[in-house]
Amino acid sequence: MNTSIVLEIATFTYEGAIAAYEAGAHRIELCENPNDGGTTPSYGMLKKIIQEIPIPVFPIIRPRGGNFVYTDAEIEIIKDDIRLCKELGYKGIVLGVLTSIGEVNSSIMKELVELSSPMEVTFHRAFDRTRNPFEALEKIIECGCKRILTSGQFPSLMNSLSLIKQLLIQANDRIIIMPGSGLKSENVQQVLEVTNANEIHTAARKAIFQESVFSPESMNEQMKYISVDAQEINKILATLNL
């Protein structure tokens, strides 16, 4: 196996995190609320996952969905969640703060990275909302982040492999560039061949609907939740064996 490639799986439920671990994920990004793109997991989730999953798990620290420009009160919430993750023993977290003009909020990020130490900090796809990704890359390096998760400023990384490759070249091993969003077993080999990335990210989403659970027909909706497709993870890992 090509052990230099790290596969990170984004999960949104306890069941999904366990499934990702059992399927062979190398690292887990732990989130809640997939419809918001991922928000900070609950205390109960954080406490249970750190006790049961031995591989690295990085909780996202994001107090709400929407943009990545936060009020002073929201920054204090972020700080408290960082402290909690440190107390529970997490090895890393995922976060990102921007200004209203699409720049990395360097002063806040430096403060948050310092507070997070010794945990690693991944700058998440807030990066894809920056005005100038090449300038943002340099600022994120200066802030002390370990890696950047990016889809190359498109909803799917398959539309921007050339930009991701340019970012990897500019990074020059000073920070990890981790392609994600739209990565699948069908395209993972192409992504790796074009970008030469050493870490990759996917949610491998699978919607779960339990027909045996009662719901009145008048509600006219399916109560689904997002879990992880273990078979898809297996296929990606099999490709990494090539």
Structure description:
The protein has a single domain, classed as TIM Barrel (Alpha-Beta Barrel), CATH 3.20.20.380. It has eight helices and ten strands. By secondary structure, it is α/β, with parallel strands linked by helices.
**Strand order in the largest sheet:** 3-2-1-8
Total strands: the figure is 10
How big is the Rg?
18 Å
Query: What's the CATH H-level homologous superfamily?
Result: Copper homeostasis (CutC) domain
- Approximately how much helix is present in the residues? 25-40%
Apparent shape: globular
Shape-level CATH architecture: Alpha-Beta Barrel
How many separate domains? 1
Task: Provide a short characterization of the protein structure.
The protein is α/β, with parallel strands linked by helices and 242 residues long.
